[in-house]
Amino acid sequence: MNSYTESEERQALRREVAKLAGKYGREWFTERARAGEKSTDLWLEIARNGYLGINLPEEYGGGGGGIGDIAAVCEELAAKGCPLLLMVVSPAICGTIIARYGTEDQKRRWLPGICDGTGTMAFAITEPDAGTNTHNIATTARRDGDEWVLNGRKIYISGVDEADHVLVVARTEDAGTGRVRPVLFVVPTDAEGFEYRPIPMEIVSPELQFQVFIDDVRLPAEGLVGDPDSPDAGLVQLFAGLNPERIMAASFSTGLARFALDRAAAYAKQRTVFQGPIGTHQAIAHPLAQSKIEIELARLMTQKAAALFDSAAAGDGALETAAGEAANMAKYAAAEAACDAADRAVQAHGGNGITQEYGMAGLLVATRAGRIAPVSREMILNYVAMHSLGLPKSY
Ligand SMILES: Cc1cc2nc3c(=O)[nH]c(=O)nc-3n(C[C@H](O)[C@H](O)[C@H](O)COP(=O)(O)OP(=O)(O)OC[C@H]3O[C@@H](n4cnc5c(N)ncnc54)[C@H](O)[C@@H]3O)c2cc1C
Hints:
By secondary structure, this protein is of the alpha+beta class. The protein has helices at residues 8-34, 40-48, 67-79, 85-101, 104-116, 233-270, 282-312, 317-348, 361-369, 377-388; strands at residues 121-124, 140-144, 147-158, 165-173, 180-188, 194-198, 209-220. It is 51% helix and 14% strand.
């Protein structure tokens, strides 16, 4: 990458993924969703082409690239109307954490399946009572001889029905200090005591969200990710997942925003009710032009965040801090750009904007979710107020 553009290799990757996603497209995606079917064919084709694990190390089946590569894949899929939320979760959050902090045995066991699409991993931190305040999670992990015993409840967990495992965040009491600390476990979705129930959501997607019930789930010692004796391991692991999560969420949003804008511009060029197409009127053209600018700004920030994150991988603390700030800003900007683009696209379509045939109204909810998850716009504003502006913590 030079100062302003992505490398030729990254641009070629984008073109290839766009071509692949174009074979499926929005109509295929929404038909699947409405029929209660899955997007597995697309998932496996992305995997077969080496795109699913493109950010993960080659020795475990990945492509040896960075977060910028998988973010580009995620964005191009969404830009063709096929946004895959599980890309944010499985290869980017879970894959990054396990590749960085898993034991050798854990990497060999779980990463190849994440890369080839046969061992998708969901991620569960959110709880009904803790919500945004993840310090308050109540899912517990208790040691019982050689095993761990997990109990708790999770909510809004994406893709549990498509996953073989869930990376579950729990808390345990440090035997030495008595301090409560987070710990991460890989829980098989068919484990005894592990149950899940879909939450009826208004998002039109084959990927669903679930309530998860964890009742006396027993795991072997090696179900705990990383070094069991390191007191802060879980916290460090969680932090490692945050920037990938935000960069991917930003790419998911900019992709959706591009899709909405492309459809709106195409419609505004051909729909005529007075003289000339409706795109002639500045009341239609200017909001779309505004969206074009906002999307490009958000993409630029996302690419900057990804480049900083990938350069910081060698352990440069200052770069890591800069990556965190940029990832938060990118996620914020992308979600805002996407919500506005979807709203303007619906408006440009008039009544057709609300029909299932044109499929634009569904984008309102899909893009709106980006202001809430995986981290809300308010928490990003809190972060920027505190870390970028040095203002006092408000919560
Ligand atoms: C589509 C979708 C997919 C999801 N997938 C997953 C997943 O796979 N895994 C997972 O673990 N979670 C997932 N989530 C959960 C998501 O991360 C949470 O919804 C999100 O973190 C917000 O938590 P909450 O819904 O409990 O809202 P709450 O915490 O109840 O917050 C409600 C509102 O209050 C605001 N608020 C709270 N505290 C403050 C504060 N201090 N300052 C300012 N405002 C504040 C919030 O910003 C929000 O607007 C998903 C959610 C959605 C919608």
